[in-house]
Fold:
Amino acid sequence: MAVVLGTLGITGFVAPGFLLSGDEEAASGSVAPTKPEDPKAAAKELAEQIVAGYHARDRGKLEKLRCPGEDAVLTSIISDATDVESVELTGEVRLVGDAEAEADMSMIWVTIRRSLTLKLTKQGDGWCWSGVELHRTEKAPTTQPDVPGLPTLPGMPDSEEVEREARKLTEDFAEQVNNGDKPGALALTCEKTAVQPLVEIIMDRQPRIELGATTATGLGASTEITGSRADNPRASGSIHVMTEDEGATWCVASFFFR
Structure:
């Protein structure tokens, strides 16, 4: 899948406060009072900076935008920045209080489309990225449709082999999850994708998953899942597995279940 990342033009947020014109200053004899900060505009600027960070695949920039403290899901989402193909805000920034805001975002990561909500918080004199809420994942549309009879490159597994190997690993992973074997599930994950914190968080919620159809997506495959968690009796999500060595070994690259 070839996706060209577009550059993002960020509109700079004008700092609160402005001066009167020279004539008005002279008439008043003083500087105009500062204009109160527009919290929605400030939160929107932060959301746009987050999008710009993903477009640049700049994990360092994204880390600078987050609030102090530990958040395993946020850390994982930031770690995935180098493999993000595209990202965009999908609605207006919403204020949920004097110092809280939310912004919906769509992201294509590897071959998976994620729908999520950014949590933005005002701390002190500025705004920072305090968290993320994941809603759903699905197979992303490909820009190059499959062509029947198109030969694969030498050494590359065909789609049937990908689905077969991916399904086998997905079944093994699902068995570890349903048995509550966290070390066993983590042992099947990819080291480079930072999926491990998500696996730990989900498994702490006592998940029971059932596998749906598996679909090959290049050198990987996605499986839709349904089931339950301790905090949601009707959870759903997906498991994405991939190979980084042309099919020699496979690992779980993404696991979402809400």
